[in-house]
Amino acid sequence: MAVLENLAKEIMDNEFDGDSSLASLQSIESWLDANLGLLNTMINTSYCEEDSELDSEAQAIYKQLYLYNYYSKKARNALRGIIGTCEQDSNSIASISDGESRVTFTNKNETAKVIRGMAKDAKENLDMLVGQYNMYQSEPRQVGGIEAAVE
Q1: 3-state secondary structure at position 104
Q2: Is 43 exposed, middle or buried (0-12, 13-18, 19+ CB in 10 A)?
Q3: Number of C-beta neighbours around residue 125 at 10 A
Q4: Looking at the whole model, is its pTM more than 0.70?
Q5: Which of 63, 96, 127, 141 has its CA 20 to 30 A from that of 35?
Q6: What is the distance between the alpha carbons of residues 16 and 12, in angstroms, rounded to a whole number?
Q7: Given a cut of 50, is residue 90 above it in pLDDT?
Q8: Cβ atoms within 10 A of the Cβ of 11, count?
Q9: By the 8 A CB rule, do 50 and 1 touch?
């Protein structure tokens, strides 16, 4: 689906500044391809890989869905790093200065909190976009009362 390729390129360029060390273009596109059903469930649509073209609102929602997943996974990985190193040295040296003998350690707890905050922001934005999409794009499944056609 050409739309997913373009969306993956947009995510790579705009969100990761083209830095393939954060995520590869192929992994982004594969995730988008594999989780299209999740988008359909969220916004009550039936996009499929072969012939559907996502509208711009659906693309924005899908982008936020990817970012939420990405940051949640990074937060889990950071937490695993914290838990895995608790028995060892839980801090690693970030910088060393000479002159006034200053040593700086990285705080993995704070790093995990920042990443978790980014995931939370992505989730809040995702929920807002889904709510707006469902409010303005979804059609009623049934019409009854005075709106129904009289035969």
Answers
A1: strand
A2: buried
A3: 16
A4: no
A5: 141
A6: 5
A7: no
A8: 21
A9: yes
